[in-house]
C-alpha cells in the first residue's frame, strides 16, 4: 500500500519536473554514447588487429638488407627461437597510373606460392594473385585501386629491371603489413599516389637486381622465444650484407600507427564520458536537492509514521534513475551508431578484411553501470542531509537562510542598481552551488576546446610541413645514392628551374644500452626548399661539431645536450662513430639525427653523394617533367607538393569535420542541460521572491533580468574556467601524444577554438533560457506566495 502511494508520488514528481529530467537524460545520453562509441572502437580495432594478424600470419620480426644470397637462409632458420622465416624482394618504384597527372609511387612486394603457415598472406578482395610464370601481372592494394578507379584488366606503367613494363591488374587485395599504407616520409596516407603491388617474387628479384638473392626478411617466433636474442643473432648474421637492422613488430610503421590510434581512443574513451557522467551526477544532485528540500516535512511525516529509511531511499533513487535509464537507452543506441560510423571512417585509413562494430555487452553494461552509479551518488548526496534529521525536526520548515552582505554585494550596494544587488546576493548566497553550477557550464566550453584544438594544431602542422619543412614543387628520391653530377642532370630536365640536393644515411643510434634505427640527415641552412622546423614553426640552428637529435629520439635514447651517442652506419660496413649531442629539436615527425650538410661526407664517407633532391619547376612543363621522371630507373619516388597538400586537406576534411560536428553537439547538450537545470533550480527556490517583486510592481522583464542575470553571472565565472580546463586537457592530450615516435602534435589554441568554446555554451544557454522565460511568465503568483507552513 505504502509502496503504491510512493510510486504514485514518483509519477507525479516526474511529471512536475519533466524539463529537468529531460536535461539530465540528454547529458547522460551524451556521456554513455561517448563511452559506448569510443570504448567499442578500442575493442573493434584491437580485435580486428589481432584477427587480421592471425589470419595473415603477420610476422614478429622484420629485417632489410641491401642484398643477401639465398644460400644463407638455412643458417638464419637455424637461429634459436625462429619458428618460420621467409625472404623476398621488395622496394619502391615510380609508376604511371591511367588518369593520374603526376607519377605515383608503388611498393613492389614479391610473393611466393602460399603454403600452410606462409607469412604475410594477401587477402584478396577481387580477382586473384599473379601466377609464378605471369611476368607482367600484379595484384594491387585495395586503397590504391579504389582511389584511382582501377579495375581488373587495367594496366600500369613502370620502369622495372631497367626497362619499361606494362603491369596488368589481375587482382585487388590487402595485407596486414599495410593496414596503414603510408609512403616513407609522409604523415597521412595518400591512397591515390601510393599503393602496393604484389607480383611474383622472381619478377621482383629482377626488378631490383636480386637474382638468387633477397633484400627483405620476416619471421615468426616460437612460443617463449627470446626476441632480443633473435634480433641480435639476425643483426650479426646479416651484418656483411648491408643490414638496415632487424626490428620487432612494435616498430613496424603500420603496426605503430594502428596501435597509436587504439591508445588514443582509449584515452578519449576515459576522459569525455567521465566529464559527462560527472556533470550528470551533479545535475541529479541539483534537481533532487530542489525536490527533497521542499518535501522535508513530508519525509519527516512519513518517517514519523514508521516508514523505513530504505523505502525513502528507494523512492528518490528511482526518481534519479528514471532519466538515467532513459538516457542510457538513448545513449547506448547513439553509441552503437557512433561506433558504426567510426568503423566506416577508420576503414578508409586502415584496410582490414572486415571492420564492423558488433555489440559489446560488457562495454554497454559498464557504460550504463557508470551512469547508474553517478545517479545514485548524486541522489544520495541530496538525500543524506534530510534523512539524517529526526522526524520532528524534519517536519519543521527549513530555517531561513542567513543573508549577509559580502564584498560583491557591498560594492554593488554603492554603485549598482537594486536588481544588480539582488543578482549578486543570489549568486553569493550559496557559494558552493554557484561554483559547481559555473563549473558545469564551464565543462561545456572545456569539451569544445579539447575537441576542436586539433584543428589549430593541424593548421600549425600544415604550415610547418608545406611552408617551411618542404617547400619544393617536386621532391625526387633516388633508389641508390647518386653522384653530384645528378644535379646537372636534373637541371637539364624540362621545366626544372632550381635543384637542391640532399643526403641521408641509415644509422643505428646508440646511447648506453639504448638504441634506435633512424636516419642521419644532412641539413643545408642555405636551402630554400627544405628546412628543419620545430613545433613552434621556428627554424633551429643545426650546430657543427656534433649531432642534433629529434626530441623523440632524445627521449628514447635518454640522451641530451652534452651526452655522446654512437652512430652505427647500416651500409654493410658496420662503421661506428661517437658524436657529441650539441642540440635537441622538437620536430614534427619521425626520429632523426641532424648534422650540417657540409659534414655528411666526412661522417658517412664515400665522398659527396645525393639521396634526394628538391626541384623548383615551371608548372607549364610539369607533364613533360613527370614523363621523364617516371621513365628514369634511378628514381624511386616522386612527390608533388601541391598534390600532397590537396590530399592532406581532403583527409582532414573527410575525417575530422564530422568529429568536430559531433563534439560541438555534445558540448552544446552538456551546456544546455547544465544551464537549464541551474535556471530551474533558481526559479524554484526564488519563485516566492520573484512573485513578491511582481506584486510590488516589477515588470516581467525586470524579474526576468534577475533570474537570467544570475545565470549570466554563472556563465561569466564558468566560461573562463572552462576555457582554462579545456586548455589543460588539450595540454594533457598533447603530452600523451608526445610520446609517439611517429609524429608530435603541437599545442596551439587559436582564437577560433576559444571563440567556439565561448559561443557554443552561450548559444546553448540562450536556447535553454527560452523555456525558463516561458515558465517565468506563467508563474502562478497566488500559489507562489502561499506560505508552506
TrEMBL record:
Keywords: Cell membrane, Membrane, Transmembrane, Transmembrane helix. Residues 27-236, 434-619 form the MacB-like periplasmic core domain. One of its GO terms (biological process) is lipoprotein localization to outer membrane. It is found in: Cell membrane. The chain crosses the membrane at residues 21-42, 268-288, 318-339, 359-383, 435-455, 656-678, 711-734, 754-772. It is a multi-pass membrane protein. It comes from the Bacteria. InterPro entries: ABC3_permease_C (IPR003838), Lipoprotein-release_system (IPR051447), MacB_PCD (IPR025857). The keyword Membrane applies. Belongs to the ABC-4 integral membrane protein family. LolC/E subfamily. This is FtsX-like permease family protein. It comes from Pseudogemmatithrix spongiicola.
Amino acid at each position: 500500500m505504502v509502496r503504491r502511494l510512493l510510486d504514485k508520488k514518483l509519477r507525479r514528481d516526474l511529471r512536475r519536473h519533466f524539463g529537468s529530467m529531460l536535461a539530465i537524460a540528454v547529458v547522460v545520453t551524451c556521456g554513455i554514447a561517448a563511452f559506448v562509441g569510443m570504448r567499442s572502437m578500442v575493442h573493434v580495432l584491437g580485435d580486428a588487429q589481432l584477427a587480421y594478424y592471425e589470419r595473415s600470419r603477420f610476422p614478429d620480426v622484420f629485417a632489410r638488407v641491401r642484398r643477401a644470397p639465398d644460400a644463407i637462409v638455412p643458417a638464419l632458420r637455424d637461429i634459436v627461437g625462429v619458428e618460420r622465416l621467409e625472404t623476398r624482394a621488395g622496394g619502391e618504384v615510380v609508376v604511371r597510373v591511367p588518369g593520374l597527372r603526376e607519377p605515383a609511387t608503388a611498393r613492389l612486394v614479391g610473393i611466393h606460392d602460399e603454403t600452410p603457415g606462409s607469412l604475410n598472406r594477401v587477402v584478396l578482395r577481387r580477382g586473384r594473385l599473379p601466377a609464378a610464370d605471369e611476368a607482367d601481372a600484379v595484384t594491387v592494394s585495395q586503397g590504391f585501386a579504389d582511389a584511382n578507379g582501377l579495375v581488373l584488366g587495367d594496366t600500369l606503367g613502370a620502369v622495372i629491371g631497367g626497362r619499361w613494363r606494362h603491369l596488368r591488374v589481375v587482382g585487388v587485395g590487402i595485407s596486414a603489413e599495410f593496414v596503414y599504407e603510408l609512403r616513407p616520409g609522409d604523415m597521412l596516407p595518400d591512397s591515390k599516389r601510393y599503393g602496393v603491388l604484389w607480383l611474383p617474387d622472381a619478377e621482383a628479384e629482377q626488378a631490383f637486381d636480386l637474382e638468387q638473392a633477397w633484400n627483405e626478411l620476416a619471421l615468426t617466433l616460437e612460443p617463449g622465444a627470446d626476441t632480443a636474442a633473435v634480433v641480435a643473432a639476425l643483426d650479426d648474421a646479416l651484418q656483411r650484407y648491408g643490414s638496415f637492422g632487424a626490428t620487432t613488430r612494435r616498430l613496424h610503421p603500420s603496426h605503430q600507427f594502428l596501435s597509436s590510434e587504439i591508445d588514443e581512443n582509449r584515452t578519449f574513451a576515459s576522459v569525455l564520458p567521465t566529464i559527462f557522467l560527472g556533470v550528470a551526477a551533479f545535475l541529479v544532485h541539483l534537481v533532487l536537492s530542489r525536490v527533497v528540500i521542499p518535501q522535508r516535512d513530508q519525509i519527516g511525516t512519513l518517517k514519523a509514521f514508521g516508514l523505513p529509511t530504505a523505502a525513502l531511499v528507494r523512492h528518490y533513487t528511482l526518481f534519479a534513475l528514471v532519466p538515467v535509464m532513459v538516457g542510457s537507452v538513448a545513449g547506448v543506441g547513439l553509441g552503437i551508431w557512433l561506433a558504426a560510423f567510426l568503423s566506416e571512417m577508420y576503414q578508409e585509413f586502415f584496410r582490414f578484411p572486415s571492420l564492423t562494430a558488433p555489440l559489446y555487452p560488457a562495454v554497454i553494461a559498464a557504460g550504463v553501470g557508470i551512469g547508474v552509479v553517478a545517479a545514485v551518488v548524486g541522489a544520495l548526496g541530496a538525500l543524506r542531509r534530510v534523512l539524517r534529521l529526526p522526524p520532528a525536526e524534519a517536519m519543521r520548515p527549513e530555517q531561513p537562510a542567513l543573508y549577509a552582505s559580502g564584498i560583491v554585494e557591498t560594492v554593488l550596494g554603492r554603485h549598482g542598481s537594486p536588481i544588480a544587488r539582488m543578482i549578486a546576493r543570489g549568486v553569493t548566497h550559496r557559494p558552493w552551488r554557484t561554483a559547481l553550477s559555473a563549473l558545469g557550464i564551464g565543462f561545456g566550453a572545456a569539451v569544445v576546446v579539447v575537441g576542436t584544438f586539433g584543428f589549430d594544431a593541424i593548421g600549425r602542422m600544415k604550415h610547418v610541413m608545406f611552408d617551411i619543412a618542404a617547400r619544393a614543387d617536386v621532391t625526387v628520391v633516388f633508389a641508390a645514392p647518386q653522384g653530384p653530377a645528378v644535379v646537372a642532370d636534373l637541371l637539364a630536365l624540362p621545366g626544372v628551374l632550381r635543384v637542391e640536393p640532399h643526403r641521408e644515411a641509415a644509422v643505428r643510434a646508440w646511447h648506453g644500452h639504448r638504441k634506435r634505427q633512424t636516419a642521419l640527415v644532412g641539413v643545408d641552412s642555405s636551402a630554400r626548399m627544405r628546412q628543419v622546423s620545430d613545433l613552434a614553426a621556428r627554424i633551429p640552428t643545426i650546430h657543427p661539431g656534433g649531432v642534433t637529435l629529434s626530441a623523440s629520439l632524445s627521449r628514447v635514447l635518454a640522451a641530451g645536450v652534452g651526452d655522446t651517442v654512437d652512430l652505427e652506419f647500416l651500409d654493410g660496413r658496420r662503421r661506428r662513430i661517437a658524436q657529441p649531442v650539441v642540440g635537441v629539436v622538437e620536430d614534427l615527425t619521425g626520429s632523426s639525427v641532424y648534422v650540417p650538410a657540409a659534414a655528411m661526407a666526412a661522417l658517412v664517407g664515400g665522398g659527396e653523394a645525393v639521396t634526394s633532391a628538391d626541384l623548383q619547376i615551371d608548372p607549364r612543363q610539369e607533364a613533360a617533367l613527370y614523363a621523364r621522371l617516371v621513365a628514369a630507373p634511378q628514381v624511386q619516388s616522386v612527390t608533388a607538393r601541391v598534390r600532397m597538400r590537396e590530399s592532406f586537406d581532403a583527409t582532414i576534411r573527410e575525417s575530422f569535420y564530422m568529429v568536430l560536428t559531433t563534439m560541438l553537439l555534445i558540448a552544446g547538450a552538456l551546456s544546455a542541460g547544465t544551464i537549464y537545470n541551474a535556471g530551474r533550480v533558481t526559479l524554484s527556490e526564488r519563485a516566492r521572491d520573484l512573485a513578491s517583486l511582481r506584486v510590488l510592481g516589477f515588470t516581467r522583464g525586470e524579474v526576468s533580468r534577475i533570474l537570467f542575470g544570475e545565470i549570466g553571472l554563472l556563465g561569466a565565472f564558468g566560461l573562463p574556467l572552462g576555457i582554462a580546463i579545456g586548455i589543460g586537457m588539450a595540454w594533457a592530450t598533447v603530452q600523451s601524444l608526445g610520446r609517439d615516435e611517429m609524429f608530435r602534435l603541437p599545442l596551439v589554441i587559436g582564437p577560433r577554438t576559444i571563440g567556439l568554446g565561448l559561443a557554443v555554451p552561450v548559444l546553448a544557454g540562450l536556447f535553454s533560457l527560452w523555456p525558463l522565460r516561458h515558465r517565468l511568465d506563467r508563474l502562478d503568483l497566488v500559489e507562489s506566495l502561499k506560505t508552506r507552513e
